[in-house]
Amino acid sequence: MRRKCYIIKSDGRSVQFNFDKVKTTCMRAGASNKLATQVAKKISEKIYPGIHTRQIYRMVLEELAIDDQNAVGHRYRLKESIMQMGPAGFPFENYVSAILAACGFDVKSHRSKVKGTCVTHEIDIVATDDNLNKYLIECKFHNSSGIYTGIKEALYTHARFLDLKEQFDKEMLVCNTKVSDDAITYGACVGQEILSWRYPDGKGLEKIIEDKGLYPITILGLNKKELQKLSENHMMLVKDLLDLDSYQLSKQVQIPGRRIEVLQSLAKRVIGNL
């Protein structure tokens, strides 16, 4: 029987350590059942009452490093990597656009100004779905854990939609963190679609990214200069590194060819068989 141990989450709440959650998260990143069980067991032996989840996160990364050939540790860093996008020069709305495009949306514009009944609004993304429904899409980016996207953002998005209702058919709120229960309830009531971390259940932001291999370039552990070069060349996704051969890519982004070869090899392992 495993001992009970209470840990501190990023939002300050105290919760019981969940062995199965650690194991499942590792497996979702691509770890085998055996490796995931080993990691969860080692972590459960190392933790102590009051330890913070960010410390557990680092401990898991250290354990997963032994299986770096399969890039499990890099995929495990997905949430952290998305939070690094803004400061690294990769606008979150551009990343969301790539995700929506992979889901069948036709992205029409970014940060476009649209005149409403009362005022002019700057809309993060305008896109249409397969049924030609025109979407107003609001993106909310957080660069730290423990911050929920809540009712305020849901209300704000819907208010803009109401002022522009003659020009849009649907509205969507997209965020890189979890969304509050109030926001979900409100969204369901007014018809607002929400895409966030772990929501909708089984179809959340992280699930789409994992299923379609839409990992951000920041997941590769690049240095500041490399991130700057890739940002300047609008290479935002891991798979973007595989569009050119190593020589062409090295010449375009001005990163040494040998380093490019290493990154392309890692990119292939992160994406896997997709």
Describe this protein's structure:
The chain is an alpha/beta fold. It folds into 3 domains: 6-76; 85-212, Trna Endonuclease, Chain: A, domain 1 (3-Layer(aba) Sandwich); 215-271, 5' to 3' exonuclease, C-terminal subdomain (DNA polymerase, domain 1, Orthogonal Bundle). Helix content is 46%, strand content 15%. It has helices at residues 19-28, 33-46, 53-64, 72-76, 78-83, 85-88, 92-102, 151-163, 181-190, 205-212, 224-232, 246-253, 257-271, and strands spanning 6-8, 14-16, 106-115, 120-128, 134-140, 170-175, 193-195. It has a 5-stranded mixed sheet with strand order 3-4-5-6-7, sandwiched between helices. A two-stranded antiparallel sheet has the order 1-2. It starts with 5 loop residues before the first strand and ends with a helix. The mean pLDDT is 92.
How would you summarize what this structure contains?
The chain has helices at 19-28, 33-46, 53-64, 72-76, 78-83, 85-88, 92-102, 151-163, 181-190, 205-212, 224-232, 246-253, 257-271; strands at residues 6-8, 14-16, 106-115, 120-128, 134-140, 170-175, 193-195. By secondary structure, it is of the alpha/beta class.
